[in-house]
Amino acid sequence: MPFASARNRILVVCAALVAALLAVALFAPLPISIVVPGLTADVLGDDQGKPVITVTGKETRDTSGQLRMTTIAATNPDAVVRFTDVLKAWFATDQAVMPRDAVYPTGGTVKEIEQHNQAEMTESQQDATAAALRQLRLSPSDVKVTLHLADVGGPSAGLMFSLGIVDKIEGNGRGGDLTGGRRIAGTGTITAGGKVGPVGGVPLKEQAARRDGATVFLVPKAECADARAELPKGLRLVPVTTLDGAIDALVALDSGGKVPSC
Known about the structure:
The chain is of the alpha/beta class.
């Protein structure tokens, strides 16, 4: 009996320790961010009362349809995320769990991160403008493009900015719109030479696009697998690798030609 009592006491102590460790694991903050579908914005339209795209030195066109850039939204870098939050997000279709360093790779304060994201957006806009003017064979010394989109940071709107500039100035080259009157969304970085690069968070951006009425989604070809994995019903994927290829795909979509698919 004394041996059994001692063993029982040991089991009770062990159980208490395990319970304490589980409690710590459940409620301790984790280096994790919860990510959800973010806002989308039509680069052919206005933002806070100002045109997203303003062109001087070249006549612009009235456009129909929409070209919507897409975003994801993450918990603030200083937010406390616990195991219970991660568990909930794990089973949600409109949430994702990402290492905080993957969402905020620069570290620092919230203000420093915002400044970094804004710097990336500014550089992306410059590259997008250069790529579009190169596509149109226009000189930046003769044509000035100003891009305005508040409260959005990072480089992932580059492709949509370039397409918007092309649509505003030239359209599809046949007197019509690149959009063909459709609500088209997409994502992708872009270089000044017109090369489209991957961005991450594609499944959540697809959800944001479909939520806001898009029926076509332009995706960097390298991210086709992620894009197909959780594709919302009613959204058509169009993979792209270059600005020129994206334009060709949109023209083909409107004319009934062959459109690439993931």
